[in-house]
Every structure is written in C-alpha cells, then in structure tokens.
Input
Amino acid sequence: MKKLINDPSIVVREMLEGVVALSPATILLADENVVIQSDLPEPAKRKVAVLSGGGSGHEPAHAGYVGRGMLTAAVAGDVFTSPSTDAVLAGIRAASGPAGALLIVKNYTGDRLNFGLAAELARAEGIPVEIIVVADDVALRETVPADRRRGIAGTVLIHKLAGAAAEQGLPLQEVARVARSASEQLSSMGISLGPCTLPAVGKPGFSLGEQEIEVGLGIHGEQGVRRIPIAPVDQLVSLVLETIEADGRLKSGDRVVLLVNGLGATPPMELSIVARSALAALESKGVSVERAWAGTLLSALDMPGFSLSILHVDIRSLELIDAPTSADAWPRGGAVNRSRVLPSFGSAEGPIESRTISPSGERLQKTAQAVAIALIAAEAHLTELDSITGDGDLGASMKRGAEAVLALPDAAFADVASGLMAMGDALRRAIAGSSGPFYATALLRASRQLAGIETPTSAEMAGAFSAAVQAVSDLGGAKAGDRTMIDALRPAADAFVTSLAQGNPTREAWQEAITAGIVGAEATKAMRPRLGRASYLGDRAIGHPDGGAVAVTVWLKAIAAV
Output
C-alpha cells in the first residue's frame, strides 16, 4: 500500500484539519470530528441547522459541503465507519438553536442507529430534530425493499436542497418536507472498475479479473450485486439508466438533474465521457436534463468507477438547486449546453481534382504506403520506448499518422510535390502531439523544394530530404547531440547527399543513409536529453534510445524495401 498518510489511526482527524485549514468559513470541534460553519450567529438567531455525515473516505463529502446554503455541520466517523452517537450529538448542540436541526442520513445501519439515538438525546434536551434517510441505490431493486436500499452519491443533492431551504429561513417541518420529497424522487447506481484500499487494512477489499467490473456497488468498498465483463462506457451508462427506468423512475417528459460522480480514482477525462453518454441517452429518451455536473462529489477512497444520480425536479426544486452556497465542494453551475457542436468551416484547400498520376507520383504513393504499414507494425515497440523516456504516445501517434496517409486518395499523388504536400496536411490533422508538426513541416518544406519538378532526380530528392531535416531542426530548435529525432535524421540525410555526390547508385546511397540513421539512433542511448519531455528525466534517460530517432529508422528501412 502506498498512501500519503502519517498514521492510519489518525487519518480522519488530520484530513479534517487540512480541510478546515483551507476553508475559513468552517471550524473543527476540539474534542470531536465535527466540522461546522464558523460564522453562525448566536443560537437564538440561527436558522434550521442541516447536518449530515457518516464514515470518512467519501471526500469531499461530507465536510466539503459545510457552508451557508448547504450543510451547517458534518460529522465524520472513522473510514467507512459511522460516527459515534456522542459525535453526532456534539454536532447538533454546536450547530443548532431553537429552530432545530435536520439530520440527513444515508441508509446504513450504523448511521441510522447513531444519528437516530443522537436525535432522541437532542430532543430530550429541547432541540427539535427531524431525520431524513436517503435510500437512492436502485441497484438493489431486486434484492431488498425500497426502504432498505443504500444511500449513495445522490445524497449530495439532498444536502443542497435542504441547505438552500434552511437558508431561506423555512421552518424545520418544511425543510424536512423538501428533503423527504426530493429523496423520494432520487435514484442512483454505481459501477466499479476495481476495489479501494482502506488505510488501516493496507490491501484491496476484493479482487477483480483483468476484464471484470462490479455493477451496483455501494460506497464502502463492498462488492456489487453482480460482476460482468468490462464494456464501453455507452453500454455501462445504458445499463444504469435502464435499471432506473425498470424501477419506474424514468420516462419521457421527465425533468431531471444529473449527477455524474467519480468514486475516487476516476480521472476527469473519463467522467466527461460518462457525462456525454448519459446526457445523450437521457435526451434520446425524451428526458429533459435541466442541470448536470460531473466530478468526484462522494467517493469511496481510491476506487475507480462512477455512479449516476437522477433527481426529478420542478420549478421550486430547481430554485433551491440554483441557490448560492459557500460550501467549497459544491460544483456550482450545472447549466446544460443545448448547442454543443459548431458546424465545420471546412478546409482552406479546395477538393483534390481528379488528375493523372505521374510515374514518380505513383512511386511516391507506393513508398508512402510501405512506410505507413511499417510504422503501424512498429506501434508497440515505439510506445514502449516512448513510455520509458517520454509520455508513451509516440506509437499511437505514428499509427494515426500512418492511417491518415493510407486514407489519402490516389489523386493526391499526382506528382511528388503534391503527394508530399498531401501527406504533410494529413499528418498535421491526424497527429496533435509534437510528431505531427515536425513531420508535417518536413514534408511541406520538401514539397516546396520539389515544386514544378515532374520527375525529380535522386540528387534533387536528396536535397529535398536535407531541406526537410533542416525544417525540423528550425521548428524545434534541436541539433545533433540533443537526443531527438535529429540524431537519426541529420546523419541519414548527410550520408545520402554525400554518397550520391560520390557517384554511388541511389540504392547504395540510401543503404548508407539507413546505416547512418541507425548509428545515430543508437548513439542517443548515451546522450543526456536537452529538449522535449525526456529532458526532464536528465541522466535517468541514459541507456535507452530516443523513440523519435528509432521511428526514423523504421521508415528509412521501409523506403529501401520498395
């Protein structure tokens, strides 16, 4: 286990100390793990207090939602363990006044018992208390009665509605009615790609096969209701929404808000893909998504996966959703973009005319196709090399570029200059990383060098090759010895030019270029990188060849085979 902690026994307290240190609007009780608003008025003037909490490990819940317009206080237990009755009671006493308190509890036995007992004790002290139990997990629809389902990420939406209602000064019974009504209109379900690791345990809570995922899991590291093979996001989202639909909670014409929640280890990229899929699926069903958010709002430590929460809304509940809050973790906004794609303005170039292909153009096309096939075959090797000293995208970039070249129409190779230009345009569109601009620039420079020449000589092609290499050097600023693709390109181009000048046949000159390129690429193993991402590694890159230089040798050799 690798975790950024000091001592597993004090992770909760130290976590809360960090949360409060970064949130001036909150304060931590000295003798309990309870975070409350720091600017509350004297008890007699307080509005209804809204409290929630539960086991820790769900950050940013629950302390992140403490703030005006949301939670008045959050009570934290140990990781995945209900807080004690005394801790909950301390929170009620610290946050409440005569207006009373609403406790929002996720439907777990420990939470219900400890929050429930604390409520009874508070009532005995004269503090009015209401409890709302959230049971939004529709994955359990065929396992337990509706009132015994778990409470999961949709609880955050109940925090928001109840907190906004309390901030408006509504009485306790009305705040409780708002929260109760919303919880009855709430559905959630989660899918996990893997387990999480509790700090005090030090190992994952369960194991999954390489191609397995858990469907319908809770938020405490437990397994789901079933295990299935991993599938594309669109299928997983459909599975969740179909379950909500089968539960009778989703139909055409509904107005809802959508919460796409990460379980702790899901990157924003993947959550955005989930959000895209969920919005499209709901809209296709005729459901109006009034607000939507994507992010990690209620996690399960470091679990990879997501949950979807659907809450039915009307004008009044939307007003509460949109009401301001000072809670740090609430994502705010939520407006759904109804116009998401701007029609293309098209290419600056006109369509490729149907022209007769010259013999030299036809030969270039065959050469380009051979190079493309070789680069596709080398994808795994180039990825491995680039993963050692770069960001690991070289193989995929070369493959995308190769596929773009293979897709060019025959007419693009009417002559050599046109073919090189078309290849450069294809590469700059297909490869967004550094390889795209470098190769595109090289090909465009070579194309200009050969413009107007119907059948270039070997010497003219060598001159274009040398000019292309210089273009790469000019663009990136690299020179021989910097441990880049130039270390293979420059010696190859120089060898080709020199050998032809010595009167050697073209094929022999090209073999010398290949040899020089290979030697140059091999020499990068001993070089300390000076440019690019590899330069951040310093001496750690030594001993491994530069991936870009090795890629050069791949296509140098492919050209010789034509």
Q: What stands out?
A: The chain has 17 helices and twelve strands.
